[in-house]
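During the no-cost extension, the postdoctoral fellow (Dr. R.K.) reprocessed legacy sequence entries with the updated structure-token encoder. One reprocessed record is reproduced below for audit purposes.
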Amino acid sequence: MHSTDPAGDEAGGRGNRAMTGPRLRGRDREISAARAALDVARGGRGACVVVEGTAGVGKSRFLAELDGMARRSGYDVVSVRADELDQYAAGAALQSALQPSDGSHRAPAAADDQRLLLLDSIADALEERAQRAPVAVLVDDAQWADPATLFVLRTLPGRLAAARILWVLAVRSDAERPILARVREDLERLGARWLTLGPLPQRELQHIASDVLGATPSPGLARLLRGVAGNPFLAIELVRGFADSDVAGMEPGETGVSRDGIPVSFRRGVAARIDRLPDDAVHLLQIGSVLGREFDLGTAARMMGRQVGSLLSGVDTALNAGLLSGDGPRLAFRHDLTRQAVHDNLPLAVRTALHREAADSLRGTGARPAEVAWHVVMSGGPVDDQAVTTLTTAVRDMSSSAPDAAADLARRIAGLLPRHDPRRIALLTDAVEYLGRTRRLHEALELVDATTSAGLEPAQEARLRLAAAEIHQAAGDDAAAMTHLETALDLPGLPSDLRVRLLKTKATGHVYLGDIAAAERTGTGLVEASHGSDDPAVVVSALIFQSQTCFYRGRLARALELAEEATRRAGTVPVALYLRPPRIAALWLATVLTDTDRIAETERTLREGQREAEALGLGWSLPHWHAARACALLEQGALDDAAVEAEASLAVAGELEITLPDPQSRAVLALVELRRGDLAKAKVHLAAAPTGAHTQRYGPWVSLARACLADAEGDAGASAVALAECFGTGEPACLLVLTPSHWPTVVRTALRGEHPALAEAVCGALLDLTAEDGSRHITGAVRAHVDGLLHHDAGALESAVAAYRNTGRPLALAAACEDLAELMARTGQAAAAIPYLEEASRLTSASGADRDQGRIRERLRQLGVRSVLARTDTAGPWGWQDLTESERNLVPLVAEGLTNRAVADRLYVSVHTVNTHMKHIFTKLGINSRVELTRLAIERGIDRDG
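Re-encoded structure tokens follow.
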């Protein structure tokens, strides 16, 4: 794919195809639609247009017209054009087109998944440009675009919908590339405008002929124009070659169309033109048609066994015949239809042999692996060792930015190899791993089943099963992962390093399943061996494993020490590159901190860890960072910000097709909505949260949210039953999945639902926790709270209230105050209960827990107290009173002209958090763009001090 500049050739291979050829005819309706889209984007809202049609129908000419219209309207135009060879290219051509010439762009990180870094870098560049002028992004021949650019086109139009950006893609209507189908689906969901360029009427073709000839076409030529099926490119070629006797003698009835959409008459016309050329020119065109739309003359010379200088006569002839263009650094066919006609006129056996030779020649000169890969695929095999090495390099280069496309290519290459070839199995194993990074998980697991049934060597089968286990773990299905791991470990003669990886993954699986004893047994010997390793990632992984087992045993102080040591060691080298959540040290440390008295340190740990992860390009970890922050903020009573972080987690996970954090984030959102009083929204979130055996890791969160919803709907019995499965065992590990302020909720719900056994089990788990970790203030506060609920002990509840005051958990304190007040009121101490209810009312109001506050105010009224009104602001236009504090902090920065990235840097938050805040602001104010927000802020006199 090539970025383009203003000077170019209308039909050639380079440039933005400035309008130097015949004027655009017969597209008035489509031009009006494009002009409307330009107006929308210039007004401040993003827009997307897809221009679709068959080859030669005028898509590139239409984009050239749109390019000129955009520039005349003050647009900054970013234009790129794809080539067939780009289909297997690593990196994104769109990113290259946007990089500053001074080299100040961020260098790519050495990560195995750079998708989010790619998206963020392109989004940042486009946002900065859109601050200065509206931007038009034009992508021609998108059906051939590199996978990373297609990934960007699937994702960023939605993310940047509030920016002044117009996205325009030109694509062939008959393209069958799987990844392109996903682009279509995503753009349709975003509301893209589809413009289909159909065949032109006969009168428009005659106008085109007049434009080319400078005179009215003769009746004979007019009759011949009926044979081009309304295709303007073919009409132009016909007119330009009309003096040729073979073309002039063509019958107007020759309108047959071949399977690929190219009229038979056009193929014959091209063949006739080439037949009259000297042999040098014919051979050059034939070799060039194999090499691609643009080709290097030196490569063509090597394939012809000639010196470059000896081809100059043939080059001149092809240029003079109007078949090639020499405007750029490489020769190019004037139109891909011409190249395709020359290519397809070669016998199949000749074409495949030439593609194989081209692959060998290009590999020998160090050409892009993607270019070599395309020729190998076109040759249809067989492939030698060198070809497999090059193809594998192309697959792995592509995998960091487009894992789904890398998987497709790996499978296609594997199909060229013998069934039991070890290289084939290695490629299929890679394909499974890459598919595991996308939503095509079922396809990955089906590939594992199909491949393992073919009678593999033990080590081959074990590697495949390890890949399958990691996919299951990433999706939260730890039981299925364990089945693959146990089967793999039973295989004989496994290499020691592979066996260690299987055991480590199995030990982690036991932790996820809550079987800490099994995890400790599996890890026996592994931990000691790991601490002696020279690899810092191995040492950090061992420390985190030890911390996790201590944590779920209830030894929180020791878990915290180990987590801090792991984070300290990880800070010396980027070992996070080799670890997966939650084994990233800082992410795990934040989880532990949230359950201890040091919860206030969680925000700093998450902020610094996430910024480092973003800088390293660890996009796959970001949904987990946002989910962890959502849980910590919920624990601290910051409901609005907790919801924003949970939504950001889902948004980033959606962009990257990562599903693991979804249940936890959905549960947090449901709990927030229940606190706010919107039960309908809570139901929506829980309906989207997975259920069943694949959610063990976050199952307690989902169970808690479902129980709270049932309780809010008045079904206390169902609420208790929903919790019993998770918490009825009395194991501390289940409680510790949740943050401490939720533990009394389980007991309260159990008692309300007449399930005393569940309440006793939770109380017993807390006894074990305090025995193991009695120094923790929050653990003692929760135990006192639970004891007070279980035994109707006002003294215990008073102790809990006093203890909570120093924990930074206002909603936990509010719940204890309310529970104590209820107990006092029932025992005739109404006057003493009132101050506790008033304190609970203030706390819930400050947190935005409107449903809790409403319940407390009603109780106060029953006790004869006229309570303070719920939090309300003076009603004003546009819903400004509905903005949260965090949202209000963003408005003056946007009005100042800062991009989302700059706002994020100013506020020390993630850009994805800012993106989510902006969506909320637009919704609450009934606007669609940053331009409208800036105007409203100026009208209200909002400045940096707000």
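The two ends are 46 Å apart (CA to CA). Residues 115-132 form the longest helix (18 residues). The remaining legacy entries will be reprocessed before the final report is submitted.
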